[in-house]
Structures are given as structure tokens and as C-alpha cells.
């Protein structure tokens, strides 16, 4: 469906699939709509985060149940469900990894449940890193931990560059390419988990920075 | 025609409760009979031996020492909890708390007074009713809708219990908001366009820290952390334990009677408050047999005693920042909320952590209620430019095979949010499925809080594993869970029966609402009085308008008589306290206006006629 279309309540033209610009009538989310259209954003990996946040806020403001305090239970429930959907869509688009995954799935690529593999060398690499992290954490070796953090961050950056490249061309890629993309995304999750294990206490991190 | 409906904002605190509402100029606290400064109602209920309400608030607190068994304080700490969760808590309370009798599966805590057992929402409802009465006297109008605040860390059961308390008090709880978020709302209205703010909220019983981003009227909570069992009560308890130990050592006396326990508690609270102002505090307690325990406590000593608690709050601050992906350098403002933030060492530590002087422009005891008032005005449609986007404080999940916690929605996700999961049957012909819903951050189901057991019913009988029931878990803007289920093969909605693990069922809340009404006959009269007064005002206004427009159609003498009786009823309605008598006068007055009404009707019809023909 292309917007604007007419509002069934006030017959004004509406630009959003879920709420009328004029009379604030709410509409259930159309089955066929994707997260980009829902948020009124272009379907691309290189999304402008500021405009995404601005778009999210604008629509959240219009469908939040607090705006419908005086309406019927039915309308308030719809507002709650729509807000949950908006929050979910925003969560997917805001996170580069989730956004890439979503683009892959939109173009018919395999989901994480359908293809669980990672590129061969990655498993061994992650295993080696994990073996280094454990004793460094236990021993409180700050220098070693920092080195590990930098190593992983470096790898993530390189992988993210590849994610970006693949995401931009996912529409015209072959099934083999899409499977490769999926394995890359799976691998990134491993590195994200490693990073989470190395997460700094913000208070300690800050003290470290100032000395 | 009617004035906009009043929605009040209520801070239902562990120690004190307050009520507010927002007018065009901003939120205001609603004072009690004691005048402008009488805005705090101590969250204390004095019951009589038969379980009736003897006193509420200041008066109840005065009787705490002489009647410890029937003076119920800090009931907020019991809300939505079972006796098993509360073992430590209960041993410190001077009144009796037991598992409610006659329950097989559920563990619902009840306060026992004489023959009667009260659930925590029923006690909280007594405080809410007192606040509601204050508001009704203030507005001279019925008040039936409220926003109530809860600690951000409250789980679904505690939030439900709060909503139940409102209902029992005759209030529709139109919204539950988190206390630190409310505080930000109170502060945020006249603040800069953009800011990242940490709200450190240490109250009587609970601790929360929330990190918010405020931008263009949107209040976005980035993360929250805390502890629902950490607050000023714990500090009092440390002092009580010190005194108890020393009395035992010096006089070989065991202080365990509820009366002395309560006396010590009151003394300890006083010592704590004094140490925020002064370097030392002196105490003297008659311990019987002509012996006196004397002690001087220094601020330093007190600060060392509470340090482990303060340390825990600092760890929470760190976790909240981590979850928000921020460091202290990103936080531009730190706001202090809750009476316990008056303690100098708390202020100092918070200042050190965030490396800036905490902000305290609004009284930390008032700020949450004021914020609730702001949220009330948002819901009433008075304030249209502000929007609150909050998060769920705890992960939500279900118990999976083998007793693990299967996470469906992680902590710090923005609400409203929704997750769904598909379930099936294990036996042929099985028509129901039970799901244990959990909240918490631990790996095992038994280490998390069980919210309720949901039973999916009326499934069509099919071979094992064939039915597919999709269950949607929706956490709404109040942080309250709503569950719905659909059998996917038949497309039919499945019935969901909820058995709360520690809370009340819908039927129980309805019964308690009726009982509370019966127990509050005096209130009923007050409400009734307000209703009748409002109706009379309405009738008087209507008659006045008719007189202005059509009065010339009446004979002069009749017109004068009607004006006189109108004024007479107006005065009478202000002075009379008996609704029945007022109603009789109102009816008599309305009969006397019939001739005028008929003239007015005829005149109106004649004016219409040319159009009708």
C-alpha cells in the first residue's frame, strides 16, 4: 500500500499506516508492512540514526496510550499494542546487527534458527580468546584485559564493515551469498558476547580513564 | 458542560504518603485539615482490636509505641509478597504477619489483628482512602481516578497489589508510574531542552536509580536498577540492633517485647534524623527496674553502620549506567529523591560517583507526588507536550522443562512491549496447559519471582503435540503484564485463568472493595454530601440561566420569590451536613421552578416554529 491514503474516520489524508494525522484515529498494523515503512524510514542499512530517533519519537508520541486517557478501553488497548510494535521496530532498526539481520530476512535469507553455522575459523578464534579472558579476569590483569578488549573491538569493526557491504546489496545477492551473510552475522554475535563478558564497570572505567 | 474530571497523583510511600494534582500553573500538593504545610500523611494505620480503623497518619504514629500490635507501618514492604519472601522482614515487625489461612498453593501475606486478617493492599487502601478524602474536601467534589507511583524495581505482583489497593479505596488507578520517573517529570518541566539525568531515589523502604534522557518534552528512561528492600527502615534497624545488643550486654536484659521493639524503632528514627543535622545524638531509654541505658551516637559511627547499604546503592548506579551504555561523564545532572538522601554521607557518595553536586531544588519528600500530579495532567489531556517512555525493570520469562528461566523480555526494554511463545500439549486429549510466569535475572526458575500460574483452557482435544497455542505476553505502560492466548490451528482465543502467586484474584479484590465500603460509612456520607452539593449547584446554575433569559415572562412577585429561594438554597447547601435533608430541600426547590421551566419551554418552541413549518 502506498501512502498517503484516506482516513476512514475523518477522510483526511494520512501519511502513517497506524495513525491519522488529523483526527488521531488508530489503525491496527497492516500484516504486510515492514519495520522501515512503519517508521517511515528508507529501507537501507545506512540509516541516519538521528532521523530514526526523531521518527520514532514523533510516532511514539502519537500512539502512546497516555494520549488516549479519555478514550474507550478498546482504543487504549490498541494504542498499547501499537506502541509495543513501534518500540519493537525501533529496537530492531536502531541496532546495526539486528538491522542487518532484518534486511537479510526481508530479502528471503535464512534466519538464525534456520542456519546456525559460523565460518569455520571463527569458532577456534572465539575459543582461544575465551581461554585468555578467563584467567585475565580471575587475575584482575587490567593490561591484558585491555589488550583483549582492543583485539575484539578491532575484529568487530572489520566484521561490521563487511556486514555493511553485504547489507547494502542483500536484495540482489544469491542464496549462497545470503547464507554467507547469515554465517557472518552469527559470528558477530559470538564477538558481541565476548565483549559483554569484558564489559567494564562504568565507575571503574571512568576512574581508569582519569589516572 | 461538566468541568474536566479530576485525576490526582499519589505517592504511596513506605513512610509517608502524599497527594497532588496539577493546575495550569504546575503541580501542587493537596493539604489536609492542618493547613498549607500539612501535606504528608504518615503511612501508618492504627486498627482497633476488632479490626476497625482507629486512626490513620500522624495520630496512628503517635500510638505506635503504646499499641505496637495494632499499629501497622511500612506495609509497602509487604505488597505483592509472600510470607516466604518476607521471613527476615517479619521478624523485625512489631505486628503479626502470617501466611493467609486456607490457601493450598498460594502464599499470600496477611496482617493479623485480633480475629481479622488484612492483606497488604487492604491496609494500603486505608491510607489511599484518607488521601482521597483530603482531595474531595479540597475540591468539594468526588475523586475517583488516580495516578499512583511505585518504586521502579517493583515487579508485576507488587504493581498489581498497588492497583488493587487503589480499587479497594474506590479509585480507578489510571496509571502506575515509577517513582524516579515521576521525580524527573516534576523537575523536567521548567528545565533545559536537553539533558541526561540520573535520579537517585532512596526512600524509607526502597532504592531506585534511573538514567533518563530528556529532550523536547520526551522523557526517555534509558535504564533503571535498584533494590525493593533497601531504605531508611534498614538504617533504623541497624541502630535498633546496636541498642539491643548493648542493653543485653550492660543489663543482661533481652528486649524482645513488641512495645520495646517499637520504642527502640521510634528512638532510632529520631537519632537518624538528628544525625543529618548534627555531629552527635544522645539517647536515654528506661529499661525497667530503675535502670537507664544512655548512649551518644556520632555521625561517623552511624555512617560506618550504614556504609554496606550505601555501597549497594553505588553498585546499582554502576549497573544502571552500564545498561544505559553511559559513564558518569555523560550524566549532566543528578537528582536526589526520598527522605534518606538527606543523610550527609549518602549525598557525599553520590556526589563522588557522578562527580557533581547533586541537585535538590525540590523537597525530596515532595518531588515524587508532584511528578505524579504532572502525569495525571498528561492523562487528563491538560498537558499535551510531555511524553514518558519508561522501561521494564526486570526480565520476564517462563519456567521451562527442567526448572530453568526461559527469558522472553529482557530487563530495561522499553514498555509497552510484547513477546510471544508457542506452547503445545504432552498428552493425548489434553485440554489445558499450565505456564509459570517469572520475573528476575537469575538462571533458575526457583531463584526468580513467580508472578502467577497461567492456565490455558478450553483447548480442542487433539493428539499430544498437535495443538499450537500462541501466548502473547504484553507488558503495558504501567509495567503490568497482560496475557492472551490463541490456539493457532482453530484460530480460537484460548481462555486464560490467572492464579497470582502472592496477589489477589479479581473476585477477592471485588469482595474487599465491598467490605471496605461497608467499613467506611462515614466516608460514604462525606461522598454523598459532595454528590448532593454538586447536584444542587448544577440545578441552581440551570435555574439562574433560565431566570436570566426567561425571567421577564414571570410575574414580578413570582420572579422575586424564586430568586429568594434560589439564594436560600445556595446558603443552605453550604451549611447543611445532612444529605437527606439537602435532597428534600432540593426537590422542593425544583418543584417551585416548574412554572418557569414551562414558560421557558413554550418560549423556546415558539422561537423554533418558523423553522419547523
Describe the structure.
The complex is a heterodimer of chains A (211) and B (613). With 211 residues, chain A is mostly helical. Helix content of chain A is 63%, strand content 2%. Chain A is built from 8 helices and 2 strands; from the N terminus they run E-E-H-H-H-H-H-H-H-H. In chain A, strand 1 and strand 2 form a beta hairpin. In chain A, helix 4 (96-106) runs antiparallel to helix 7 (175-197), helix 5 runs antiparallel to helix 6 (142-168) and helix 6 packs antiparallel against helix 7. Chain B has 613 residues and is α+β, with helices and mostly antiparallel strands. Chain B is 39% helix and 27% strand. An 8-stranded antiparallel sheet of chain B has the order 21-20-23-24-27-26-25-22, with no helix packed on it. In chain B, a hairpin with a 2-residue loop joins strand 9 (109-113) and strand 10 (116-118). In chain B, helix 4 (156-168) runs parallel beside helix 11 (506-519). The longest helix of chain B has 30 residues, at 521-550. In chain B, 44% of the residues are buried. The model of chain B has no long low-confidence stretch (mean pLDDT 90). Classes of the chains: A mainly alpha (211), B alpha+beta (613). Chain A binds chain B through residues 57, 60-61, 64-66, 69-70, 80-81, 83-85, 87-88, 90-91, 199, 201-206, 209, and chain B through 7, 174-175, 215-216, 218, 314, 317-318, 321-322, 326-329, 353, 375, 378-381, 387-389, 413-418, 474, 476-477.
What's the helix-strand series of chain A? EEHHHHHHHH
Give the averaged pLDDT of chain B, no decimals. 90
Structural class label of chain B: alpha+beta
The total strand number of chain B stands at 27
Radius of gyration of chain B: 28 Å
Strand content of chain A: under 5%
Cα-to-Cα separation, first versus last residue of chain B: 31 Å
Helix content percent band of chain B: 25-40%
Q: Largest sheet of chain B, described in full? A: 8 strands, antiparallel
Helix content of chain A: 55-70%
Chains forming the largest contact: A-B, 25 and 33 residues
Contiguous uncertain segments of 5+ residues of chain B: none
The outline of chain B comes out as globular
- Spans of at least 5 consecutive residues with low confidence of chain A: 205-211
Shape of chain A: elongated
Task: Please describe the biggest sheet of chain A, giving its number of strands, its sense, and whether it closes into a barrel.
Answer: 2 strands, antiparallel
Overall pLDDT metric of chain A: 88
Amino acid at each position: 500500500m502506498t501512502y498517503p491514503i484516506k482516513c476512514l474516520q475523518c477522510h483526511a489524508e494520512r501519511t502513517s499506516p497506524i495513525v491519522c494525522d488529523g483526527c488521531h484515529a488508530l489503525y491496527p498494523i497492516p500484516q504486510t508492512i515492514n519495520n522501515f515503512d512503519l517508521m517511515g524510514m528508507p529501507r537501507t542499512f545506512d540509516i541516519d540514526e538521528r532521523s530514526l530517533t526523531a521518527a520514532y519519537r514523533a510516532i511514539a508520541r502519537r500512539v502512546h496510550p497516555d494520549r488516549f486517557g479519555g478514550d474507550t478501553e478498546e482504543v487504549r488497548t490498541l494504542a498499547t499494542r501499537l506502541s509495543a510494535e513501534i518500540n519493537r521496530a525501533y529496537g530492531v532498526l536502531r541496532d546495526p546487527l539486528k538491522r542487518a539481520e532484518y534486511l537479510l530476512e526481508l530479502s528471503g535469507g535464512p534466519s538464525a534458527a534456520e542456519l546456525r553455522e559460523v565460518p569455520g575459523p571463527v569458532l577456534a578464534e572465539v575459543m582461544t580468546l575465551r581461554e585468555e579472558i578467563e584467567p585475565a579476569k580471575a587475575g584482575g590483569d587490567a593490561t591484558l584485559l585491555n589488550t583483549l578488549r582492543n583485539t575484539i573491538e578491532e575484529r568487530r569493526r572489520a566484521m561490521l564493515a563487511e556486514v555493511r557491504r553485504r547489507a547494502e546489496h542483500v536484495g540482489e545477492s544469491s542464496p549462497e551469498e545470503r547464507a554467507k551473510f547469515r554465517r557472518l552475522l552469527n559470528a558477530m554475535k559470538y564477538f558481541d558476547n565476548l565483549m559483554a563478558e569484558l564489559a567494564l564497570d562504568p565507575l571503574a572505567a571512568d576512574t581508569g580513564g582519569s589516572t | 458542560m461538566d468541568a474536566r474530571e479530576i485525576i490526582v497523583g499519589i505517592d504511596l510511600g513506605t513512610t509517608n504518603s502524599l497527594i497532588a494534582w496539577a493546575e495550569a500553573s504546575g503541580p501542587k500538593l493537596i493539604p489536609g485539615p492542618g493547613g498549607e504545610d500539612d501535606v504528608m500523611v504518615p503511612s501508618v494505620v492504627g486498627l482497633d482490636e476488632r479490626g476497625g480503623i482507629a486512626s490513620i497518619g500522624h495520630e496512628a504514629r503517635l500510638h505506635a509505641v503504646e499499641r505496637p500490635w495494632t499499629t501497622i507501618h511500612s506495609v509497602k514492604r509487604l505488597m505483592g509478597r509472600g510470607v516466604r519472601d518476607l521471613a527476615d522482614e517479619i521478624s523485625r515487625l512489631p505486628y503479626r504477619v502470617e501466611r493467609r489461612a486456607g490457601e493450598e498453593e498460594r502464599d499470600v501475606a496477611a496482617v493479623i489483628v485480633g480475629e481479622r486478617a488484612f492483606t497488604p493492599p487492604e491496609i494500603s487502601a486505608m491510607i489511599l482512602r484518607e488521601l482521597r478524602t483530603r482531595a474531595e474536601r479540597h475540591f468539594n467534589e468526588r475523586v475517583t481516578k488516580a495516578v499512583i507511583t511505585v518504586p521502579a524495581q517493583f515487579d508485576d505482583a507488587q504493581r498489581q497489589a498497588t492497583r488493587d489497593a487503589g480499587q479497594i479505596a474506590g479509585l480507578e488507578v489510571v496509571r502506575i508510574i515509577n517513582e524516579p520517573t515521576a521525580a524527573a517529570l516534576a523537575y523536567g518541566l521548567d528545565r533545559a531542552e536537553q539533558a541526561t539525568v540520573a535520579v537517585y531515589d532512596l526512600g524509607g523502604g526502597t532504592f531506585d536509580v534511573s538514567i533518563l534522557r530528556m529532550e523536547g518534552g520526551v522523557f526517555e528512561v534509558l535504564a533503571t536498577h535498584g533494590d525493593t528492600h533497601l531504605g531508611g527502615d534498614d538504617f533504623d534497624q541497624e541502630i535498633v540492633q546496636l541498642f539491643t545488643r548493648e542493653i543485653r550486654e550492660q543489663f543482661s536484659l533481652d528486649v524482645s517485647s513488641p512495645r520495646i521493639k517499637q520504642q527502640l524503632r521510634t528512638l532510632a528514627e529520631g537519632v537518624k534524623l538528628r544525625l543529618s543535622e548534627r555531629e552527635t545524638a544522645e539517647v536515654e531509654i528506661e529499661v525497667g527496674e530503675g535502670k537507664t541505658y544512655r548512649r551518644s551516637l556520632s555521625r561517623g559511627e552511624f555512617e560506618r553502620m550504614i556504609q554496606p547499604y550505601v555501597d549497594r546503592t553505588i553498585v546499582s548506579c554502576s549497573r544502571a549506567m552500564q545498561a544505559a551504555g553511559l559513564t558518569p561523564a555523560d550524566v549532566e545532572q543528578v537528582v536526589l529523591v526520598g527522605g534518606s538522601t538527606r543523610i550527609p554521607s549518602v549525598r557525599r557518595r553520590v556526589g563522588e560517583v557522578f562527580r557533581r553536586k547533586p541537585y535538590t531544588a525540590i523537597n525530596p519528600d515532595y518531588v515524587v507526588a508532584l511528578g505524579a500530579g504532572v502525569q495525571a495532567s498528561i492523562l487528563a489531556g491538560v498537558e499535551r507536550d510531555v511524553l514518558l517512555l519508561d522501561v521494564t525493570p526486570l526480565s520476564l520469562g517462563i519456567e521451562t522443562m527442567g526448572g530453568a528461566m526461559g527469558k522472553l523480555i529482557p530487563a530495561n526494554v522499553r514498555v509497552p512491549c510484547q513477546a510471544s511463545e508457542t506452547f503445545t500439549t504432552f498428552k493425548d486429549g489434553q485440554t489445558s496447559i499450565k505456564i509459570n510466569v517469572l520475573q528476575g535475572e537469575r538462571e533458575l526458575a526457583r531463584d526468580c519471582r513467580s508472578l502467577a500460574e497461567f492456565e490455558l483452557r478450553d483447548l480442542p482435544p487433539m493428539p499430544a503435540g498437535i495443538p499450537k497455542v500462541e501466548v502473547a505476553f504484553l507488558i503495558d505502560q504501567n509495567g503490568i503484564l497482560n496475557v492472551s492466548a490463541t490456539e493457532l490451528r482453530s484460530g480460537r482465543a484460548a481462555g486464560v485463568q490467572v492464579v497470582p502467586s502472592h496477589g489477589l484474584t479479581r473476585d477477592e479484590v471485588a469482595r474487599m472493595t465491598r467490605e471496605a465500603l461497608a467499613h467506611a460509612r462515614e466516608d460514604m456520607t462525606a461522598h454523598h454530601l459532595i454528590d448532593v452539593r454538586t447536584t444542587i449547584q448544577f440545578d441552581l446554575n440551570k435555574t439562574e440561566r433560565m431566570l436570566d433569559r426567561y425571567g421577564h415572562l414571570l410575574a414580578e412577585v413570582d420572579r422575586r420569590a424564586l430568586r429568594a429561594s434560589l439564594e436560600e438554597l445556595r446558603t443552605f447547601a453550604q451549611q447543611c451536613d445532612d444529605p437527606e435533608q439537602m435532597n428534600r430541600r432540593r426537590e422542593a426547590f425544583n418543584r417551585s421552578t416548574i412554572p418557569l421551566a414551562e414558560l421557558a419551554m413554550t418560549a423556546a418552541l415558539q422561537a423554533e416554529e418558523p423553522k419547523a413549518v
